[in-house]
Amino acid sequence: MRSLPFPAGAEGNRILCLGAHSDDIEIGCGGTLLGFLEHHPGTSVDWVVFSADAERRDEAQRSAERFLRNARRRVILVHQFRDGFFPYVATAIKECFEELKSTLAPDLIFTHQRNDLHQDHRLISELTWNTFRDHLILEFEVPKYDGDLGTPNVFVPLAESACREKIHHILDSFVSQRQKPWFDEETFMALLRLRGMECNASSRYAEAFYCRKLVLGATERDVVQALTSTDPGAVRSHVPHRSS
Questions:
Q1: 240 with 171, same domain?
Q2: Is 225 helix (H, G, I), strand (E, B) or coil?
Q3: Alpha carbon distance 159, 164 (integer Å)
Q4: Which of 73, 167, 193, 223 fits a 20 to 30 Å CA distance from 159?
């Protein structure tokens, strides 16, 4: 299976993480973030949570700091929009996105997947695409009772140790969620194992994402030359080494 990684040793990347609730980002892409920041310590991360009451706000702050410990720069924003009511206060949430657009130019955005059955998750996904129209966006998944897991098309293999580190941080940070029957190590490891099987990861585990649009980094001239060349290998020779 072919991979399109960020350039090895790249510095100065900027990532934007958008989560409806205080644990969504960690569940959806925590392992990927831990690995990326370990290998790209020059990365800056803007981490935005849209709903958290007083208790969950403190949990969200502590958890984000743990996951972003290797970031060169981190900005953590935690809003307090009412859980479950996002579609009914969408105007105010849209204003938050407009502010983000005026100040950020991220290289990569993590957000909720568009077919998520939780109304808060779905609105954040919609506003992400409404706001950031020329960016690489990866949509993450959050397991839940609704049974809305789909067929992702981007996979990030993770070592078992990275998976367990991710899960340890989540369970240790979000004490308020432990009473939920699905919020446990077995649920999180099961999804990581399933996605690892689907992408044939040698480590056996992976996080998965949905990518609706991906522009490969060849110039227009490169593409024209490759498509008009009489050399059947020309197209392959122009496969770029970065995603954008």
A1: no
A2: helix
A3: 9
A4: 73
Identify whether residues 72 and 187 lie together within a single domain: yes
Bridge partners, 109 (sequence order): 16, 137
Domain count, the chain: 2
Per-residue pLDDT reduced to its tens digit, 129-139: 999 999 999 99
Euclidean distance between CA atoms 157 and 195, whole angstroms? 9
Same domain, 101 and 187: yes
List all residues 6 or more positions away from 61 whose beta carbon is below 8 Å from its beta carbon. Answer: 76, 78
- Is residue 169 within 8 Å of 67, Cβ to Cβ? yes
How many Cα neighbours within 13 Å face the side chain of 3?
10
Angle between helices 24-39 and 160-173 (to 10 degrees): 130
What's the rounded Cα separation, in Å, for the pair 165 and 167?
5
For 60, phi and psi rounded to 5 degrees? -65, -40
Q: Which residues pair with 156 in a beta bridge?
A: 207
| Domain match, 71 and 127 both | yes
pTM for the model:
0.87
Residue 222 reports pLDDT greater than 90: no
- Determine whether 221 is exposed, middle or buried from the number of CB atoms within 10 Å of its CB (0-12, 13-18, 19+): exposed
